[in-house]
């Protein structure tokens, strides 16, 4: 078990998705030295209670999430031009009262670009990075998740069934994180990022070993 834990710790430390977002007030890209600093930055904006800061936080999630794609600017600009003040204000209220996985409640806000599992779970994670983690299409390729999720070819819909699968995923990452905390301060999102790294680098089979199935 120690050897397995060491492998996961190495993957967490090797996580190499760019910790980058955009400062919309200063009109410049921000690159953080650690991904935890990105988490804190977006978390603070989302919980600021200020409509412009919350809009920037949501935009920042899209900027980061689409960083490696060719549609980043398009997705961010479409969000910023179509989201309404009412949606942001409703979001602020929802963020304050959100409990549990909350994916259905977040989806019902109707925020542009936050419709399916990948980005709604990103939003849930940045709202509470100490307790939650992302579930996107790349992670969904892991067999235990594929068996639990109802998938579409290009996205994961948010349904009651899939929200239960997300809750299972969060619990698995929490359990793995708790086993690693004797050697490193580890959160569920850190575990997910380590597993993402393995999948992203062609080691899906290794990642599946950690899920116990």
Mean residue pLDDT? 94
The low-pLDDT segments are none
- N-C termini distance: 15 Å
* Largest β sheet strand count, sense and barrel closure: 2 strands, antiparallel
Silhouette: globular
Please indicate the count of domains. Answer: 1
Helices and strands, in N-to-C order? HEEHHHHHHHHHH
- How is the quaternary structure best described? single chain
Strand order of the largest sheet: 1-2
- What count of helical segments does DSSP give? 11
Radius of gyration, whole Å: 17 Å
What is the strand content?
Answer: under 5%
Structure explained in plain terms:
- This protein has one domain (2-209).
- 59% of the residues lie in helices and 4% in strands.
- The protein is built from eleven helices and two strands; from the N terminus they run αββαααααααααα.
- Strand 1 and strand 2 (28-31) form a beta hairpin.
- Helix 1 (2-14) crosses helix 10 (188-200) and helix 2 runs antiparallel to helix 3.
Task: Give the key terms.
two-stranded antiparallel ribbon; mainly alpha; 213 residues; 2 strands; 11 helices; globular
Secondary structure elements and pairings:
Layout: H1 2-14, E1 20-23, E2 28-31, H2 35-46, H3 51-65, H4 72-82, H5 85-97, H6 103-107, H7 117-127, H8 143-148, H9 160-180, H10 188-200, H11 204-209
Antiparallel strand pairs: 1-2
Helix pairs in contact: 1-10, 2-3, 3-4, 3-7, 9-10
